[in-house]
Specification:
- The protein has 20 helices and twelve strands.
- The chain is globular.
- The longest helix is centred in the middle third of the chain and has 27 residues.
- It has 483 residues and is of the alpha/beta class.
- Strands 9-6-3-2-1-12-11-10 form an eight-stranded parallel sheet.
- The model has no long low-confidence stretch (mean pLDDT 95).
- It starts with a strand and ends with a helix.
């Protein structure tokens, strides 16, 4: 069935306390989607973030960002008092610094009342033990080491000496349980949000980064899964080769997977990760899918990505193992970037829908795509979190290019270009069409852009306003028919 969706991260919901949360703003947004006839809500990765607040560089591939925990729900459940509520935000963007300053103070107050949910908490800890214990220890050690990355810790903990870890569990039992409690609260709130969305016949599309951050609980807990040297430094790291846009390429710095070991281990880590994701989402978008066919490997310590080489990835064997364990899993493959025949073959073998992005589909702007010219088994986007808003994209086109887009999308002088481009997108044969809220609102980059790739600061701060979700917008969205 051809359906439409909206892209808006949890952080971008119009929350009161520094960023969007899993509270009233999430439920109100779901109600808006339901009234508008939108069947899909796509979010970005939900892992706990560190410096830079990038959701694609999380401290864990399994944990949930405590920033999204809603204080008002904690209050209603009797976990905190009204005096424990954080200050209401003062700006129209995410205030991560303020969240960092209050979130753990508030959650420690809630932790004092953890026995209100003792049975649920105990069950959660038992069911999530395959990642939760290591994550909680990692967070405690990170606190004790004043935020230092795990590879700078004392050797006993850096190399996971078992007697040292047993000592940690005894001496820091209370604090380890605190981090497990925080995850219990976050997962509980999200489970309720997802159930409400599903009740309204709305699916949640989640987003899985292909790589883990070097400083993450995942790499610390299972270094054997990654290409690390005996002293646990990366041997090679991830990135993208030089191209027309960047002569030095992109040096991401994530440690690469040891695919030979993972194959011998029957891809157990990946299977756990995907199974875990489907507890949170109905549909899973996997980022940088081409990296499974072949990945770009850069020697650790290289100043740029120029010295990298392409290396064969795990290919279909990985997804065959995943499909065997995760029956009927609905996966979207982010198949953008430098594509080669092996990527197309892998996508075909998997049968997953790929992606097309309007801003990337105009080529040299001499030949433009034909209406309904995209394969049915794909997902069409006006743009993603990494793109300009559609209005900034349109405004920056040359005169001749703009004429071509006007013709393609039937844009007249009196039309709003963003809405006509959305109407064009909805006419495609694609399985899903996903539109960021900012594109519906006609925002420019100055007010609406989520991320500028390779820019380390100033990103991920966009927040919607309550009055953005107007009846007029809802009526417009309902009026667009997928055909």
């Amino acid at each position: 069935m051809k359906e439409s969706g909206m892209l808006l991260h949890i952080s971008s919901l119009p929350g009161k306390y520094g960023c969007g949360t899993m509270g009233k703003c999430a439920y109100d947004f779901i109600d808006f989607l339901a009234k508008s006839g939108v069947k899909l809500w796509q979010i970005l990765p939900v892992g706990p973030t560190s410096y830079g607040d990038c959701p694609y560089s999380a401290l864990s591939a399994f944990a949930f960002n405590p920033y999204f925990i809603d204080p008002d729900i904690l209050l209603s459940e009797g976990l905190i008092e009204e005096s424990d509520l954080p200050p209401v935000r003062k700006t129209n963007e995410c205030e991560y610094e303020n969240i960092y300053n209050y979130i753990y103070i508030m959650l420690n107050k809630a932790y004092l009342n953890k026995d209100k949910f003792k049975e649920e908490l105990d069950l959660f800890i038992k069911e999530e033990d395959y990642w939760l214990d290591d994550y909680a220890m990692y967070m405690v050690l990170k606190d004790e080491q004043e935020g230092k990355p795990w590879y700078e810790w004392y050797n006993d903990f850096k190399y996971r000496n078992q007697s040292s870890l047993e000592w940690l569990k005894r001496e820091y039992e209370y604090k380890i349980l605190f981090y497990k409690f925080v995850q219990f609260i976050a997962f509980k709130q999200w489970k309720n949000v997802k159930a409400y969305a599903n009740k309204k016949h709305i699916k949640i599309i989640g987003d899985m980064p292909i790589y883990c951050a070097y400083d993450s609980a995942d790499v610390w807990a299972s270094p054997i899964q990654f290409q690390l040297s005996p002293n646990l430094a990366p041997e090679n790291v991830a990135g993208c080769p030089p191209d027309y846009f960047n002569a030095d390429g992109q040096l991401w710095g994530n440690p690469l997977y040891d695919w030979n070991y993972m194959k011998r281990d029957k891809y157990s880590w990946w299977i756990k990760r995907v199974k875990h994701s489907f507890k949170l989402y109905d549909v899973l978008r996997i980022d940088h899918f081409r990296g499974f066919a072949g990945y770009y490997s850069i020697p650790f310590g290289s100043p740029t990505a120029r010295n990298g080489v392409w290396v064969k990835g795990p290919g279909y064997a990985l997804f065959k193992a995943i499909n065997k364990e995760c029956k009927n899993a609905e996966i979207i493959a982010e198949n953008l970037g430098f594509l080669t025949p092996d990527v197309f073959k892998l996508l075909k073998d998997c049968g997953y829908p790929g992606m097309n992005i309007f801003q990337f589909e105009l080529g040299d702007l001499k030949k433009v795509p034909l209406k309904k010219g995209y394969p049915e088994n794909n997902v069409f986007y006006t743009g993603t979190h990494d793109n300009q808003t559609i209005m900034s994209f349109y405004n920056e086109l040359s005169y001749d290019a703009k004429k071509l887009v006007d013709k393609l999308c039937d844009i007249k002088f009196t039309d709003k270009p963003n809405l006509k481009i959305i109407e064009f997108a909805m006419k495609q044969n694609s399985k899903y069409v996903i539109v960021p809220l900012q594109d519906y609102l006609g925002l420019t980059d100055e007010k609406g852009r989520m991320n500028i790739p390779s820019t380390p600061t100033g990103n991920w701060r966009y927040m919607a306003k309550k009055d953005d979700f107007s009846k007029g917008l809802s009526d417009f969205i309902k009026s667009i028919k997928r055909s």
